[in-house]
Amino acid sequence: MSSLTVVAALDELDRVQDFIRNELERCNCPSEIQFQIELAVEEIFINIVNYAYHPEIGDATVFCQVEEDDPLRVIIQFLDQGRPFDPLAREDVDAHAKVMQEEVGGLGIFLVKNIMDDVSYAYENGKNVLTIIKSL
Predict the structure, then answer these.
(1) 136 Cβ partners below 8 Å, 6+ apart?
(2) Mutual angle of helices 31-47 and 107-115, in 10-degree steps
(3) DSSP secondary-structure letter at 105?
(4) What span, in angstroms and rounded, lies between the C-alpha atoms of 52 and 73?
(5) What is the full DSSP assignment across 53-104?
(6) Could you tell me the pTM of the whole model?
(7) I want to staple 52 with a disulfide (CB 3.0 to 4.6 A). Which of 4, 14, 80, 128 is the partner?
């Protein structure tokens, strides 16, 4: 499993995306699935930046593993030591109604849950651990 640790700041998003893109290219991930994974990674990383430590700054670690079982699948895990927060505990938003409102929040995780095959959260040893899985 490969990993990357960065400061949880928006200017590190490109490094995180490059790391994931490199891992996906090594396993010949189809471009449509790669786009979905990159979108999910962006949403999750931005949530960490905006909510885990704010207004302070801390680190975020991203792990990426390609399991070569049948089917091939990508497992990406995000770890941070910010405030405990389970984004999956919230009830899913009504996406259509949400777009019509000015209120912010909830659509990113809704999107991640709908484009990934599995999304899970745990708070372990003082760390938020969010895992996303996508079959290739």
Answers:
(1) 27, 29, 30, 33, 71, 72, 73, 74
(2) 150
(3) -
(4) 27
(5) STTS--EEEEEEEEE-SSS-EEEEEEEE-SS---TTSSPPP-HHHHHHS---
(6) 0.88
(7) 80
pLDDT for residue 103: 47
State residue 75 phi and psi, 5-degree precision: -115, 125
> Which residue numbers in the chain have pLDDT < 70?
91-106
Q: What's the distance, CA 53 to chain centroid?
A: 16
Tokens 């927060």 sit on residue: 85
Residue 46 has φ and ψ, to the nearest 5°, of: -65, -35
What does the block give as tokens for 9? 């700041």
Two tokens, residue 71: 């089917």
Instruction: Judge whether 111 and 122 are in contact, CB under 8 Å.
Output: no
pLDDT of 106: 61
